């Protein structure tokens, strides 16, 4: 579970900060991708960098040793990423596409849309951690994802994006 502290209640005589749980929705493949990255960092990357830092430290003066300084920096980056991935996986809610299949667009749906200019594209609504717009994986929290959620085939929705609003029609929904 991910915890967010609301600063408005901090230090005002309440029993503690107000806690808000944020779920991290993932598809099974997205959760596996995060698990694989975490395992690679813990079993391959970190041990390799620890060995490099130990070898650099054995060379003597650490204050001017670029390999040692860079290695320590890389270890901090790896540890930061490990903490992030661990927290995201703890808060993860794995939703199997089609588990809640309906005729509406839901998390995990594959949606084919037609733009105003007649161009059609297919998108899969996924969690923010697995979003790759270039491959058609769009976060359900993105402007396009929010506009498509709970809509049906034939609906025309307006997507408010930084480049301006655009209308898209939902052609097909599958899970």
Layout of helices and strands:
Elements: E1 2-6, E2 18-22, E3 24-26, H1 28-57, H2 66-90, E4 92-94, E5 110-115, E6 120-126, E7 137-139, H3 143-148, E8 156-161, E9 164-174
Helix pairs in contact: 1-2
Brief descriptors of the model:
3 helices, two-stranded antiparallel sheet, 9 strands, Helix Hairpins, Chitinase A, domain 3, disordered N terminus, 175 residues, alpha/beta, five-stranded mixed beta sheet
Brief overview:
With 175 residues, the chain is α/β, with parallel strands linked by helices. The protein contains three helices and nine strands; from the N terminus they run βββααββββαββ. The protein has a five-stranded mixed beta sheet. A two-stranded antiparallel sheet has the order 1-2.
Name the CATH class of the largest domain. Answer: Mainly Alpha
Neighbour order of strands in the largest sheet: 7-6-5-9-8
Anisotropy-based shape: elongated
Strand content: 25-35%
CATH-defined architecture of the largest domain = Orthogonal Bundle
* Alpha-carbon distance between the two ends: 27 Å
* CATH topology assignment of the largest domain: Helix Hairpins
Structural class by sheet pairing and helices: alpha/beta
- The unreliable regions are 1-21
Q: In DSSP terms, counting alpha (H) and pi (I) runs of 4 or more, how many helices? A: 3
Specify the biggest β-sheet: 5 strands, mixed
């Amino acid at each position: 579970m991910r915890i967010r502290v609301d600063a408005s209640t901090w230090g005002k005589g309440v029993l503690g900060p107000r806690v808000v749980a944020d779920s991290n929705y993932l598809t099974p493949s997205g959760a596996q991708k995060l698990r694989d990255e975490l395992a690679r960092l813990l079993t391959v990357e970190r041990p390799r960098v620890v060995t490099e830092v130990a070898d650099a430290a054995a060379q003597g003066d650490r204050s001017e040793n670029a390999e040692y300084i860079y290695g320590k920096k890389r270890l901090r980056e790896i540890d930061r990423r490990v903490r992030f991935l661990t927290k995201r996986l703890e808060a993860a809610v794995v939703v199997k596409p089609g588990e809640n299949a309906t005729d509406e667009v839901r998390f995990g749906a594959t949606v084919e849309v037609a733009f105003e200019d007649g161009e059609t594209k297919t998108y899969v609504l996924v969690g923010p951690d697995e979003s790759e717009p270039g491959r058609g994986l769009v976060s359900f929290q993105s402007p396009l994802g929010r506009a498509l959620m709970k809509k049906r085939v034939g609906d025309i929705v307006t997507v408010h994006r930084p480049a301006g609003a655009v209308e898209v029609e939902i052609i097909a929904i599958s899970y």
